[in-house]
Amino acid sequence: MLDDTIYWTAHQTLPPDEIAVRFKHRIVSIHCFPNGNGRHSRLMADIIIEKIFKQPVFSWGAADLVKKSDARTTYLQALKAADAGDIGLLLAFARS
Q1: CA distance 64 to 44
Q2: In b/e form, how buried is each residue of 70-85, taking b as 16+ CB within 10 angstroms?
Q3: Positive or negative CA dihedral for 86, 88, 91, 93?
Q4: What is the pLDDT of residues 8-49, one digit of tens each?
Q5: pTM
Q6: What ranges do the domains of the chain cover?
Q7: Exposed / middle / buried, residue 90 (Cβ in 10 Å: 0-12, 13-18, 19+)
Q8: Topology of 2-94 in CATH?
């Protein structure tokens, strides 16, 4: 995961938003923690986009994604699409 992200960044093979969101998607699948993996992965994507690419952090639907809501449902659908290989919904949600 880290080697892929370094390669994408060094060779500019993907746009910055996609690099950060793909990193987020892959790190959350590792499940580093018993709870909080989504929050951790979104924070990591925000750090990548802000510190490496000097762009604004993501809005992530501008909603609380921990509590049950329409935004959380949309987010989970975007994650499932990314799991199936379609990163587009997650990219769109990150900037929504």
Answers
A1: 17
A2: ebbebbeebbeebeee
A3: negative
A4: 999 999 999 999 999 999 998 888 877 889 999 999 999 999
A5: 0.90
A6: 2-94
A7: buried
A8: Fic-like fold (1.10.3290)
